[in-house]
Design a protein that fits this description.
single chain; mainly alpha
């Protein structure tokens, strides 16, 4: 197991440039608009979180399952493996990797809430495809621990910690985990939470805050902008429409094959 993020497979194998990520998204946007693609990310992130909450697992486990889901669909489509099946499989594997194992039947049973017409052997088989796709590189570093460390060192208000934690949760509705290191996402979430708590900061205050943290300002502001963009898109999201959108998307992929 890698001792830190910079030695991990997450950095060495799964970190992408913005251009590489844009090329991957372009593959999906032959059947979808940019907003529809964003809606799908929100939808399946929410489903993974729903299953995780029914299993009463930690937020970090939900985040790991979400990253696994995203990693699989970098090189695959929803037509290759049903995303509802992959949702359950990612949660099952994440629980094992994060040392909070749940019986496969329990995970399967809690997944019935998400339009799940599969059985236990289907989850077990899907797990092998998921492991193969990720080349068995399973360790995931998240922004949460960085957030806690900064919060303790800076003695920040609990309200700021809670707000930043929620913003990090929202970050998984995007693909920024493929582009930015965890500490950059954590700092962007903290900055955004301070803006929410205190109103608009002056440029001098913001610059001083970044200087104290010794981080690349450009990357942090880019993450902030991407988070604000997903919040704007989120206003048009309608959960009830998503199952039909998923079915249509899979049908369109099948028709184009």
């Amino acid at each position: 197991m890698a001792a830190n993020y910079w030695e991990s497979s997450q950095f060495q194998r799964f970190l992408l440039t913005r251009f590489e990520l844009a090329e991957i998204e372009k593959m999906h946007m032959t059947q979808l608009t940019s907003n529809e693609l964003a809606y799908l990310k929100i939808y399946f992130t929410n489903l993974i979180a729903l299953v995780g909450k029914r299993l009463h697992v930690r937020q970090e486990i939900i985040a790991t399952a979400t990253v696994y889901f995203k990693r699989f669909y970098i090189n695959n489509t929803f037509y290759d493996i049903d995303p509802y099946l992959m949702t359950t499989t990612c949660m099952y594997l994440a629980c094992k990797v994060e040392e909070c194992p749940h019986n496969i039947k329990q995970v399967w049973n809690e997944s019935k809430i998400i339009r799940f017409p599969y059985d236990v052997p289907d989850v077990a088989e899907c797990e092998s495809y998921l492991l193969e796709e990720m080349k068995f590189y399973l360790v995931v570093y998240h922004p949460y621990q960085v957030l806690i460390d900064i919060h303790e060192q800076a003695n920040m208000p609990k309200a700021s910690l809670q707000a930043a934690w929620s913003i990090i949760n929202d970050s998984f509705k995007t693909d920024m985990v493929f582009v930015y290191p965890p500490h950059v996402i954590a700092i962007a979430a903290l900055f955004l939470s301070r803006v929410v708590d205190q109103g608009n900061q002056s440029d001098v205050e913001a610059q001083q805050w970044y200087a104290d943290l010794n981080v690349d300002v450009t990357d942090v502001l880019q993450v902030v902008n991407e988070l604000l963009a997903v919040y704007e898109v989120w206003t048009g999201y309608v959960d009830e429409k998503m199952p039909d959108m998923v079915s249509r998307y899979i049908a369109d992929i099948a028709a184009s094959c």
